[in-house]
Design goal:
The chain folds into 2 domains: about 55 residues, no CATH class; about 190 residues, Ribonuclease H-like superfamily/Ribonuclease H (Nucleotidyltransferase, domain 5, 2-Layer Sandwich), CATH 3.30.420. Helix content is about 40%, strand content about 15%. Strand 1 and strand 2 form a beta hairpin.
Length: about 280
């Protein structure tokens, strides 16, 4: 446990600001007003990395220093053998949802697809897919987008059953998605409306992690990242297909992170650092 750090000068303006906090990133307050069966591929708080700012708001540390700082702190906090064993045993659930539209307030789930990742492998036998029967079928324009026709929609299970099955299957595993806020919003609303409960899960967003690990790459959509890593980009109209494609990307990103840091806390910190410093 790191204690409070003594006062030191602000590296940005030399004002003699006060320094406090724990871990490798203290909070500095400026005194100057004004701051296959398997496939093998190549609850978290806001991170504590609070970058020092002087009265002009300039940042006193760069991407490399910040990332190196939190990696060093994580390594010191747990023996390497125990950390590697814990990380290797992690089960991740990579998922994707298909919906009738983009508006979480009025559109509905149409399908949920997910696959587990463990020890650097996509575990095909540990997968999940449910079609969801909406109250009313999507209009033809939306069917052309998501590719789930009226017959397939009618063959789905009720939303409460689909979400309940997902919760039981996923268990306590962290959930991984690309643009996770979208999937999370639809799942949380559907669980709340149909099961009358909260959908509590830990999420990791690959749309934030990918650019944090690859700051020079100009990519935004999932398919952009698949192309960048030379992964197959096929026409996909099922949530399960998108989940598998997302899992392939996840493995490529994990390979860029030291083995002992491939847990939820470490990956979230890295993704957040990329957002702050990008």
């Amino acid at each position: 446990m790191h204690g409070s750090r003594p006062s030191s000068s602000c590296r940005a303006c030399g004002c003699g600001c006060s320094t406090s906090g724990q871990g490798p990133w203290p909070t500095r307050t400026c005194s100057i007003p004004g701051s296959c069966r398997t496939w093998t591929g190549g609850s978290s708080r806001r991170p504590s990395a609070r970058l020092a700012r002087c009265s002009s708001g300039s940042r006193s540390t760069g991407r490399a220093e910040t990332v190196a700082g939190w990696l060093s702190w994580l390594r010191r906090s747990e023996p390497e053998s125990a950390r590697l064993e814990r990380v290797a045993a992690l089960r991740w659930v990579v998922l994707d949802v298909e919906t009738s539209g983009l508006d979480v307030a009025k559109d509905t789930l149409l399908s949920i697809g997910a696959v587990a990742v463990r020890a650097g492998h996509i575990v095909v036998d540990d997968s999940f897919e449910r079609g969801v029967r909406p109250r009313a079928a999507s209009d033809r324009a939306n069917i052309l987008i998501h590719g789930i026709g009226e017959e397939a929609q009618r063959a789905g299970v009720p939303p409460a059953q689909a979400c309940g099955d997902l919760i039981d299957w996923a268990g306590a595993a962290p959930l991984v998605a690309f643009h996770a806020a979208f999937d999370r919003a639809f799942l949380e609303r559907t669980v709340r409306d149909t099961l009358r409960r909260r959908f509590d899960a830990d999420w990791l967003d690959l749309a934030a992690l990918a650019p944090a690990l690859n700051p020079g790459v100009r990519a935004t959509a999932l398919d952009d990242w698949l192309v960048h890593f030379d992964l197959p980009v096929d026409e996909r109209h099922r949530a399960g297909d998108d989940a598998f494609a997302t899992a392939m990307l996840f493995l490529r990103l994990l390979a860029q992170v030291p083995p002992g840091e491939r847990d939820l806390a470490g990956l979230r910190r890295l993704a957040q650092a990329g957002r702050w410093l990008g």
